[in-house]
Each structure stands twice: as C-alpha cells, then as structure tokens.
C-alpha cells in the first residue's frame, strides 16, 4: 500500500509536536473537524508518549465535565499546551481568518466563524497551523479579516503563537521575532519554485530545503492499525478513505 | 410548570426576544425552534452559546431572525449553514461575531450578577474592532503595561434547552453539559423541552443532582420526544447525518428550504412526531 498524503501529514505533525526545541506538549486539545491532527496525536500515544489528549466533540472519552467552557478555562490557566488552528485565509504574519473574505463580517465568502481562535491562539504556549489546501487564495499576503493575530505588541499578554504551518505541499516554520515564515521542508513532488507559485505571501528560504520525510514503516503500521481503531467512531469517512477501513455495522 | 407541547412554549416567546440556543452538540431545543417557525416568530435576536448550528439556520431561513450573535455557524459535517450565509449576503440579518470564551464569560458575568468580566486574548482581532460594546483597559492590579478586554454581562431574554428528562418538581437533567447551567442562571426565562417526565425529585438522588438544572431557574417545560433531532442528544440518540445532509442540500435554495419546512416542520405528521 503506497503512502497516503494524509499519513505523511499525520507523521509530520507528530514529529513537530515532539520537537525538543518547543515547549512540552503534555496536554493537547484537538477540534472537531481535524482528523489528521487527531491521527498525529493518536500516533504519539500509540508510540508510548504520555500525552493527554482532549478530543473535542467526541462523546465517549470526552474529558470535560463542565461543558464546553472548561476547555477555555483550562487554556486560560495554561493547562493546554498545544492546539491546532486552521483558517480560510492564513497570511505571512501567521494571522488567521476564519470569518470570511471581503468586508466584515465576510461579505465575499463567509466562513463559519472564529470559534475560540481569538483566545486559544494567545493562551496556548504553541499552536500548529494546519491547512491541507495550499493555494494563493488560502495563503495570502494579508488576510481580509483577522480572527486571531499571529503576533502581539508588548503589553498584550500572550503565551505563544504558531510553531509551524503544515499544508498539503510543505512545512513552514514560524519565527515570531520577525513575524515571518521560513520554508522548512517540501513534500515529495514539490520544490521551492512550486511552493512560491502556490503561496500568496513572501517567506524565507535556506540554501538547501529538504524533502519532508516519509513516515517510517513503524509509523505506518501504527497509523493503519491502532490509530485507525481509535478514530473509527469519530471519523468513519476519513478512516475508510485513508486507511481503507470500514466501521463494523 | 408543564405545558402541553413545544408550540405552547413557543407561544410565550415574544417577537424581538434575545433567544439563546446551545450548539448542535449541546442540547438545543430544536423542537422549540420548529414551534417558533410554526408560530411565525419575528425579529428574534439569536445568541449562539457559544456557536450556532441547525436550529439557528432553520430560524433564519424561516424569516424569524433579525440578528445573530455567535462565534461560528455551521452544520458540522454537513458543511456551512446555507440559510445563514444567504441571509448575511442579502443583508437580511445583522451578524455580531464573537469568540467562544467571550460568550461564556458574558453569561458568567450575568450569572454572578456583576456588570462585566475580563477575558484574556482578543486584542488585535478584528472581532474586537467590530464590537463597540467590548472595552479594553489597563489591568488595575499590574504595575506594568497589561491591557485586557472587558465584556459586559449578557442576560438572554429566553434560553431554549432540550433536556433528557424533567421530574415532577421541574428539575431538568442535562448531564455533564454544565455550560447550560450557566446559561440557565444567566437567562431571564428558561424554556425546556425534554424526552420524558420522571416522578419524584432528581435533586434527592446524589448521582443525578450534579447533572440537573434546578427548577428555580426554569419557567416552563414540555415533553417533546426526539426534540433535539436531527442533532444528537448525549447518549440517547446520535446526530442524524443523513437528515442534516438532506437539509443542507434543500436549503441551498429558498424553494428547497420551503419544501423542507413543509415536509418536516409544518406537516401534521411532523408535529405529531414531536
């Protein structure tokens, strides 16, 4: 079975989570529409890393007993170490737009809305931005509307910001000191030139940009076996499409 | 107080009310939303606690809504909310965007009876730039620069919740969805539909009491079986993805939406099923 793009992305996210240069990830929260980040977190668990996972919107295994407010209270205290955010638009300063294009409140294309992003992005020590679609309409020079800013001025309390932006084409590392992305690796079939062509914002490039590594055989075996087992209930369509597994009737 | 059905509850909701609805995973009374459509409610101002789903899209499509305050509107796996999007584009509704913890915090302030509460984050978001009712101050306890957002207390006129069961004394069990208790405490009136009525008082059972909203806060209750359908109700029944996908397909057009209403909201059999 060939390596699926989703499997590569899950393994890539898992390696970013374990990055020893980043703040520790003891408790990770994963939102509803995030099967690939969820797969990355389950991969870590199945590799034996003692990470606590809070999978929002999953009925069984839901750790919260105080309703949906508890996630934000935990995050406010600094008890959630890592969160994933996406965006209808993401720009070169790591601003994210979940509201819509055009004039406020999204008179062009309206997206669902900002959810908790205007809080989580500030209060989580690190965020991994994840968006499979990598195109000039998503990765823009400047977002039309800011749901949550990538950097904040002094005098605004902020625990962290984006560690990286992972897309279907590449991995960007974010540098908050200069509020810019740097290209960290390109997925197979991509080049610096193809990434430039597909990206609306300017970014830094080192002399040599490596290819994003393949998942190892051990990672693939975990993803297709025990990780898929954990995800079947919440993401049946994803498991069928990526892992070729159907839920038992 | 027990009323006959969801339509009797809907008759008590005045046009123009600020109506709070939990999202699809947290016990909204879809039965009451359907009854409000049947009653022809007008100019409702909806509050998503903290986001909005199926019931909000239904009420907007039926022309019951003037304004929506929420952190997001979506049909979950069935995608964007079509009638919300169409109404926003047409300028038929005012949309006041928020962020989830801000809505919780505004309700918590109302619950405590204080005029405002602070919340971290938000500064630098265009949400704040579009919320003249939110303020930024210097943290009065900090000697260094530390700006923080203040949010006003918010008391919905009516909260519409679908609980699992109500007892003879009018206590309602919602399980671990404790943000509904905050919503109930913060709201002027709470109207509840439930799957079933049980005898006695659940507050006398230590295992049930922590999952209850006390009758103190609840104005009226009606039994409405499958009153959360097509969204999920805890471990009672799951999200009806086929139904919501069909809704999303029909609601792409005004004519399709009307067909949906005729089949599932106005049809006598649909009423009987509630």
Keywords:
heterodimer, A: 249 residues, alpha/beta, Glutaconate Coenzyme A-transferase, eight-stranded mixed β-sheet, three-stranded mixed β-sheet, 7 helices, 19% strand, globular, B: 274 residues, 2 domains, nine-stranded mixed β-sheet, three-stranded antiparallel β-sheet, 10 helices, 12 strands, 31% helix, CoA_trans_fam_I (chain A)
Oligomer: heterodimer
- Globally, the shape of chain A reads globular
- Biggest interface in this structure? A-B, 46 and 54 residues
Backbone CA Rg of chain A: 18 Å
CATH homologous superfamily label of the largest domain in chain B: Glutaconate Coenzyme A-transferase
Number of strands of chain B: 12
For the record, give the distance between the C-alpha atoms at the N and C termini of chain B, rounded to a whole number: 19 Å
Average pLDDT rating of chain A = 93
Which of globular, elongated, flat, extended, rod-shaped describes the shape of chain B?
globular
What does the largest sheet of chain B look like? 9 strands, mixed
InterPro entries (chain A): CoA_trans_fam_I, NagB/RpiA_transferase-like
GO molecular function (chain A): CoA-transferase activity
Organism (chain A): Falsiroseomonas bella
Protein name (chain A): CoA synthetase
